[in-house]
């Protein structure tokens, strides 16, 4: 009896389940009828995600929704501050490497001229030096990929040369007219942030910091130990054109320069509780005379250093007003492999000054701020500085300091606008200096072996009339205007720059700064100031 009942009702039950399933499917999200959902609520995706989903599913043509998403994100960020940025997946690795202080690759510097990849420098102790690569080599092939004469770009050659540590890449090189093959085992290549450290005068040390990365503090300490062994009693720290980086690197360096207990900086935001950063331990250089060199390119962590040193009367700020970035970003990784660098707080230096310049007039006005400073004369005249005095403050010594829009220097050194003649501008923009230095160095290597170090080179090498004439002949191939009527001032600039770039070929950034600083007016003012201090 029970089996007969089951046989009767089973088809009826299956029909009911099937009908119910069809009805529910008809009403679920994704149905193309346009009817309201009854039994299931849609997930709260927000209109932006809804629009992207609809475009992806319904639009008449095939669209790259990744590009649409990036443009949508960037459009949203335009309504925030200028330092909240989206980093697409294609750029994230390079951005992170720059701050982490290393990357995995073969360890060469290169440039591309006339469709040829030239090895400009081989990093000492790196994989390429081990494999026998030399400055002046021309890279023809990387693996099976021909890179010479086929429109190779810097980004393409970088991708070919970089790769995981211990992986191997085979390169075909041209050296002295002969093809050779070199197998290179990739390794971890440091990206240094301390570009130079040397004794610039008796008892006076000089340290150039190009950014504040994960390795900057360790590099700084190594430089300090070297200089102190050499008899350093006074110090110049150069953070011109330093865009900043990790705040931790800046505060750890400040801890070496200021005694205890002192506030260095604090951060505070709407959803970001106040956090104070103070000196924690005895520092390596708490007493000697100190100068910090700044300009309109000194930003963020550079301004933390300059601001704290100024507020505590620890040293003299020399140069020009800093950039004015007082916002703190945190980086959030996204599912697509990119990242969002979002402003979460402001930082304040010990005087309670927020040095962030205004950004309420939009990103374009913010980006044009430096050129506006040039236009209204601030870069050449201290009286033209437009100070946003957010917090009136005098230091313990009675010195008035200003905040809001950057750190205003104690000693102003104007920008030399005469360096921007038509001829010099063309030489710089067309990379003529660097290309000539590379070409001259590689064809006169034997002559440069007489110099034992950067100091010896700086003291002895001269840009002779013959070298200067060779440069003018070389510059004509770049169609540089005005080569037949170069002023005496431009000629001095050209000779100085050639010498500095020759030093860079020999001794990298250390040699460049040791040489170029001999004619730098800001460095000269710092030396003059420190030599007067006891």
From TrEMBL:
Ranges for domain PDZ: 92-162
Q: Example GO biological process term?
A: signal transduction
Keyword vocabulary terms for this entry: Hydrolase, Protease, Serine protease
Q: Which residues form a coiled coil?
A: none
- Which is one Pfam family of this protein? CtpB_N-like
Matches recorded under InterPro entries:
ClpP/crotonase-like_dom_sf, CtpA/B_N, PDZ, PDZ_sf, Peptidase_S41A, Tail-specific_protease
Q: What is a GO molecular function of this protein?
A: serine-type peptidase activity
One annotated Gene Ontology cellular component of this protein: outer membrane-bounded periplasmic space
The organism's superkingdom is given as Bacteria
Instruction: Give the Gene3D superfamilies listed for this entry.
Output: 2-enoyl-CoA Hydratase, Chain A, domain 1 (3.90.226.10), 2.30.42.10, 3.30.750.44
Please report which protein family the annotation says this sequence is part of.
Belongs to the peptidase S41A family.
NCBIfam families cross-referenced by the UniProt entry: prc
Q: What is this protein called?
A: Carboxyl-terminal processing protease
């Amino acid at each position: 009896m029970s089996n007969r009942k089951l046989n009767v009702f089973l088809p009826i039950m299956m029909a009911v389940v099937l009908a119910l399933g069809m009805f529910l499917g008809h009403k679920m999200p994704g149905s193309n009828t346009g009817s309201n959902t009854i039994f299931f609520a849609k997930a709260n995706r927000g209109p932006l995600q809804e629009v992207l989903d609809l475009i992806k599913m319904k639009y008449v043509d095939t669209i790259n929704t990744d590009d649409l998403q990036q443009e949508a994100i960037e459009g949203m960020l335009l309504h925030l501050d200028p330092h909240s940025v989206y980093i697409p997946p294609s750029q994230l690795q390079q951005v992170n490497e720059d701050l982490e202080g290393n990357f995995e690759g073969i360890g060469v510097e290169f440039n591309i001229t006339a469709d040829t990849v030239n090895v400009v420098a081989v990093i000492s102790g790196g994989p390429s030096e081990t494999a026998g690569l030399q400055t002046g080599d021309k890279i023809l092939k990387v693996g099976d990929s021909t890179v010479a004469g086929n429109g190779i770009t810097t980004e393409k050659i970088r991708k070919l040369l970089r790769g995981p540590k211990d992986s191997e890449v085979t390169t075909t090189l041209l050296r002295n007219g002969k093809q050779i093959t070199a197998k290179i085992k990739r390794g971890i290549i440091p990206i240094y942030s301390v570009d130079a450290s040397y004794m610039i005068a008796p008892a006076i040390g000089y340290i150039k910091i190009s950014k504040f990365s994960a390795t900057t503090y360790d590099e700084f300490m190594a430089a300090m130990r070297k200089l102190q062994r050499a008899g350093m009693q006074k110090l110049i720290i150069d953070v011109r054109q330093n865009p900043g980086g990790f705040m931790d690197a800046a505060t750890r360096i400040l801890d070496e320069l200021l005694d205890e207990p002192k506030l260095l900086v604090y951060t505070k935001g709407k959803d970001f509780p106040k956090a104070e950063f103070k000196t924690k331990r005895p520092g390596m250089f708490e007493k000697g005379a100190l100068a910090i060199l700044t300009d309109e390119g000194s930003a963020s962590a550079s301004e933390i250093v300059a601001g704290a040193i100024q507020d505590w009367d620890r040293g003299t700020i020399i140069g020009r007003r800093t950039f004015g970035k007082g916002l703190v970003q945190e980086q959030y990784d996204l599912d697509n492999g990119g990242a969002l660098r979002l402003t979460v707080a402001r930082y304040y230096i010990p005087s309670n000054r927020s040095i962030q310049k205004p950004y309420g007039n939009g990103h374009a006005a913010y980006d044009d701020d430096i050129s506006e400073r040039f236009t209204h004369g601030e870069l050449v005249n201290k009286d033209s500085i437009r100070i946003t005095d957010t917090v009136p403050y005098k230091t313990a010594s009675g010195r008035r300091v200003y905040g809001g829009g950057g750190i205003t220097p104690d000693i102003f050194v104007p920008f030399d606008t005469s360096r921007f003649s038509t001829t010099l501008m063309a030489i710089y923009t067309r990379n003529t200096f660097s290309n000539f230095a590379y070409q001259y160095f590689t064809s006169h290597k034997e002559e440069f072996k007489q110099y034992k170090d950067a100091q010896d080179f700086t003291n002895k090498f001269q840009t002779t009339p013959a070298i200067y004439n060779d440069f003018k002949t070389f510059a004509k191939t770049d169609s540089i205007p005005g080569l037949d009527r170069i002023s005496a001032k431009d000629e001095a600039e050209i000779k100085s720059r050639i010498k500095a770039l020759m030093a860079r070929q020999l001794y990298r950034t250390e040699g460049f700064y040791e040489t170029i600083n001999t004619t730098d007016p800001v460095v000269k003012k710092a030396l003059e100031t420190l030599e007067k201090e006891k």
